[in-house]
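Structure record:
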Amino acid sequence: MKFGRLVYKYTGETIAGKDGIYNIGDNFQTFAIDNVYKRMGIDTQDIIDINACEMKNYDGDYAIVLVAGYASHYKRFNQLPPSGKIVPLFFSFEMSDESCDDIVSYLKKHSPIGCRDEATMQLLRRKGVEAYTSGCLTITLPRRTKEPTQKKVFFVDIPSSLEAYIPAELKENCEYITQEGIIEQVPMTEEERLEIDKMAQNVLNKYKEEATLVVTSRLHAAAPCLALGIPVILAIDNIDSRFSWLDKLIPLYDSNHFEQIEWNPIAIDIEPLKERILNNVCKQLTELYSEKSAMYDLSTFWEKRNKVCYNYKLRRQLEKFQVQYNSNERFKYIIWGAGVHGRLAYSMMEEMYPNAILVGVIDKYVRGKMFSCDIQGIDSVENMVFDCAVITTHPGRFEATEKLNELGIQNFCYFISKDMPEMQE
């Protein structure tokens, strides 16, 4: 079993019109995950990259993944719930989407959830999920070992309204930096992802080697720089709930309080806090690996084989519809039989004819719902409008055939495993 490091290979449009936006603060979170795995002594050969923007579609080795970072756009970026190949540990997790009910059951299954901020914790608790505030993982990056010899201030994505309050002496040796940029191609290429990763590391090194003060509106400039041992001023027009943990460590200034900024802050010592956080997350990862690795390694043994074509005979029966419809055509169908074969038929139809629409389910005995359709009795078929039918019941096949013939429906197929004369070609 592997350990997964979340990387950010953006696959969709973000906030700048038709242009994709990257934010190297995301890369700083990856570096923080790297730091955790390094502390645990995990061999780099046992660590794999997993795209944070496509966790739902991941299909590689089974991996324990430290799920950290912003997740409120999980629906747009195919993040949650992730693939069954991912065994998650939620730590430094952010969620501000109140409509996240579709993933609540998954979060409950993998709780307690370590939340980056108090607002996320409160939201999840309202949803009935066990949660606690962990803080941001970037606060655990290693402290720099030496101070810069020359005074230099970095202004990182500061609001324009702050400029009037900045003392002149801070601008004598300063640099303005933005942590966002435009993605040249959407979806992002692997080469561009690696280039941005390198850029992020260079920016972090610049802070570490040169900064005597960082003034920023960015959460993921403030937290990493505090971890590095750099004095930080957080100034932003509006302080939103993402920061509902950082005010434990430093003052947060909104535009109504810029005149109160202390422009000569000192670096704070958070090394004991780092140890507390790192001990917590490393302990949880170690326990999760101990609990899960043997079973998933066993599953991997069975899964990695030369696989036969399963249900070939049943698939061939559904291919009958290809005479009338191509694989992407839109048509309506019903399933006759609400048992196991009925559910398998729906799954295969979804795969083979993704635009086909199930409009009804017929069964002589079963009632309820199946794939959002009410399961109805035999006579109800007379009121249904459909193009073809899939008969999935062995004992009821004659009755189904007779009824369909009575209605003048000739476009139907059997979806039954047992050999029958009427299924012979």
Summary: DSSP finds nine helices and 19 strands in the chain. The chain has a mean pLDDT of 92.
